[in-house]
Amino acid sequence: MKDRLEKTVNYLKNKGFESPQVGIILGTGLGKLVEHIDIEIEISYNHIPHFPTATVEFHQGKFIYGTLSGKKVVVMQGRFHFYEGYSLQDITYPVRIMKELGIEKLLVSNAAGAINKTFKKGELMLIDDHINLQGGSPLAFKGVSKLGERFVDMSAPYDKDMNTSFLKAAKTLGITLYEGVYASVVGPQLETRAEYRYLGLIGADAVGMSTVPEVIVANHLKLPVSAISVLTDECDPDHLQPFNVEEIIATATRAEPRLVKLFGELIKTL
């Protein structure tokens, strides 16, 4: 992997991706943050050596470099998922690339279903901890110790200082920001009523199909990371409605301006 990382990083540096300070991963329905970036360079994933290609139709698939809130940022507009057939190493490859490019902080967003019945769709949740239900680890491969310590502490996977700053920013902006535990499943199918009950019993406040592998690798790289879920539906097993992808995307889109404000406010403080 080290040879592939070097080739990818050299390609991006030659294109002008120089010394970004913050990395951002944008999830489902959350791509409009880029409209607030003073973009210098954008490259489609399929043009980047050794990069996976986003196959989900509502993910853009662009690597973007520019300035946001006075900081140089590198942004993934569209991420990769286990359910697309990629390995966990493929999914997290861009995190390693962003770290090699020089980022000092990583911000992640996703769309998730609310398990906690006091949480409402259209609101935001700051991830305080997570449960990995994807059945594997992005660190479980031969040679991982050449890229960092094999055994990674996960007692506090989300950076406490950035999380505190997010909560302060939300209060300042008058934005509701729940705190909770995010469970990451494989997908792409949605959960059954029994599975939603199970997730609630084991302590999950929200469920989605991403983020955890990226956070694990960020911790492997000793890269401070913070993540926010946009709650796009309410997963009440006793009143469960059929899944509607258009409604999910619409809910994420309506919540997006608040996420943009939060990210912008936080980045000012980094």
Please outline the helices and strands.
Layout: H1 2-15, E1 22-26, E2 38-44, E3 62-68, E4 71-77, H2 88-101, E5 105-114, E6 124-132, H3 160-173, E7 177-184, H4 193-201, E8 206-208, H5 212-220, E9 225-234, H6 245-269
Parallel strand pairs: 1-4, 1-5, 5-9, 6-7, 7-8
Antiparallel strand pairs: 2-3, 3-4, 5-8, 6-9
Helix pairs in contact: 1-2, 2-5, 3-6
What would you say this structure looks like, in words?
One of its GO terms (molecular function) is purine-nucleoside phosphorylase activity. This protein has one domain (2-269): Rossmann fold, CATH 3.40.50.1580. The protein has six helices and nine strands. The protein has helices at 2-15, 88-101, 160-173, 193-201, 212-220, 245-269, and strands at 22-26, 38-44, 62-68, 71-77, 105-114, 124-132, 177-184, 206-208, 225-234. The protein has a five-stranded mixed barrel with strand order 5-8-7-6-9. A hairpin with a 2-residue loop joins strand 3 and strand 4 (71-77).
